[in-house]
């Protein structure tokens, strides 16, 4: 199709979408905030009437001090049947199952016709995590977030993934592009197209999801895998270094690199290195699980860590349920043995 004909068709489609959104109580703006393989995401506004007739939406937006939402429009008429009949329903059911957590993007409502499906989503207006990491390089000239900020963001990710798992959902496509930040800097996990309900402990999965560079080794080895264990990602490494630890497109070369283990930039704390190593174990059972991540010494904020270290030095057991000891910054966290039992330190030194 010629450029001018394409533009005319796009304009006609957009006009139809504006009307369909208006019929459902939303004012679609022309500001496109993202796009996927078969979708476009626009900024939109909820109307007063829509809020009045939709108590769930009104409750979701309460406290946000704005009426903005993100509307993801999927052209089901153009998308492959597998996408419309498998991945889209998975995405919707995963979002419904994980409603409602501060760090998981909220699905307010859906509507559809024979041409399109509309997902009305909580707006995460700032950027995705990849853009944020790249912006840090541009503004501060440093590759990666500082560890304090990385810890704050990573806590939210751990909390979001733990919530998904406890709701019976595995994400299976954890990567920086699927982690959004809202205007308050809150993390919002999104894109549940590979979300799966049956991926819990007793029913191994076999579908290859995600991108090679983010993929768990057991999936690269084409083995059946446990969806919860595979949801570990290597996002922490990307956050603090602005690089993926192993950048390869070929699964067998990725495995080769993984066997040799990651190298770290100078200046990264040993605790952080230890936690990253804990994620990058070849055997899934040797990898840190979410509870171990939450209890890892690196996850403890610096201020709390020094208090805990002081009270530990004085022989107090400490009342906080969080980790009570922290590795000294001098040695390796693993070799110092100063992480809690069961933390990555124990696993990696095993
Ligand atoms: N709730 C939201 N708030 C703000 N921006 C969003 C939101 N949801 C999606 N986006 C933007 O739209 C882009 C595409 O969305 P999403 O990843 O959900 O679509 P997709 O069709 O599943 O994409 P892909 O084909 O890459 O898997 C995102 O990368 C993001 O930039």
Automatic annotation (TrEMBL):
SMART domains in alphabetical order: S_TKc (SM00220)
| TM annotation in the entry | none
SUPFAM superfamilies for the chain? Protein kinase-like (PK-like)
Q: Which GO terms describe its cellular component?
A: cytoplasm
> Which Gene3D superfamilies does this chain map to?
Transferase(Phosphotransferase) domain 1
Give all residue intervals belonging to the Protein kinase domain: 27-299
Q: Which GO terms describe its molecular function?
A: ATP binding; tau-protein kinase activity
Q: Which UniProt keywords apply?
A: ATP-binding, Kinase, Nucleotide-binding, Serine/threonine-protein kinase, Transferase
Give the residue ranges for region: Disordered: 313-350
Please provide the Gene Ontology terms (biological process) for this protein. intracellular signal transduction; microtubule cytoskeleton organization
What the entry lists under InterPro entries is as follows: Kinase-like_dom_sf, Prot_kinase_dom, Ser/Thr_kinase_AS
- EC number(s): the record gives 2.7.11.1
**What top-level branch of life does the organism fall under?**
Eukaryota
Does the entry feature the keyword Lipid metabolism, yes or no? no
Concerning PANTHER family, the annotation shows: MAP/MICROTUBULE AFFINITY-REGULATING KINASE (PTHR24346), TESTIS SPECIFIC SERINE KINASE 5 (PTHR24346:SF84)
Please state what the protein is called.
non-specific serine/threonine protein kinase
- Natural source organism: Ursus americanus
In the record, what lineage is assigned to the organism producing the protein?
Eukaryota, Metazoa, Chordata, Craniata, Vertebrata
């Amino acid at each position: 199709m010629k450029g001018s004909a394409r533009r005319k068709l796009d304009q006609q489609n957009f006009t139809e979408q504006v009307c369909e959104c208006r019929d459902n109580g939303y004012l679609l703006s022309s500001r496109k905030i993202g796009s996927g393989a078969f979708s476009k995401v626009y900024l939109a506004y909820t109307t007063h009437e829509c809020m009045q007739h939709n108590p769930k939406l009104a409750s979701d937006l309460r406290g946000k001090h704005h009426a903005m939402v993100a509307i993801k429009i999927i052209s089901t008429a153009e998308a492959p049947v597998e996408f419309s009949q498998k991945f889209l329903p998975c995405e919707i059911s995963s979002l419904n199952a994980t409603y409602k957590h501060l760090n998981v993007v909220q699905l307010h409502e859906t509507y559809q016709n024979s041409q399109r499906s509309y997902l009305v989503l909580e707006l995460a207006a700032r950027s995705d995590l990849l853009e944020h990491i790249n912006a840090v390089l541009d503004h501060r000239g440093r590759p990666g977030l500082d560890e304090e900020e990385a810890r704050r963001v990573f806590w939210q990710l751990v909390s979001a993934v733990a919530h998904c798992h406890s709701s019976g959902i595995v994400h299976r496509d954890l990567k920086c592009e699927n982690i959004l930040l809202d205007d308050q800097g809150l993390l919002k996990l999104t894109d549940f197209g590979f979300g799966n309900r049956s991926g819990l402990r007793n029913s191994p999965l076999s579908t290859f999801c995600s991108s090679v560079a983010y993929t768990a080794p057991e999936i690269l080895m084409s083995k059946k895998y446990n969806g919860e264990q595979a949801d570990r990602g290597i996002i922490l490494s990307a956050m603090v270094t602005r690089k993926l630890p192993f950048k390869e497109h070929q699964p067998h070369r990725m495995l080769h690199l993984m066997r040799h283990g990651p190298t770290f930039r100078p200046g990264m704390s040993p605790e952080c290195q230890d936690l990253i190593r804990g994620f990058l174990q070849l055997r899934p059972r040797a990898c840190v699980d979410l509870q171990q991540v939450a209890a890892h010494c690196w996850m403890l904020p610096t201020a709390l860590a020094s208090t805990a270290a002081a009270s530990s030095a004085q022989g107090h057991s400490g009342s906080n349920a969080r980790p009570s000891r922290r590795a000294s910054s001098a040695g390796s966290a693993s070799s110092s043995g100063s992480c809690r039992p069961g933390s990555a330190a124990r696993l990696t030194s095993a």
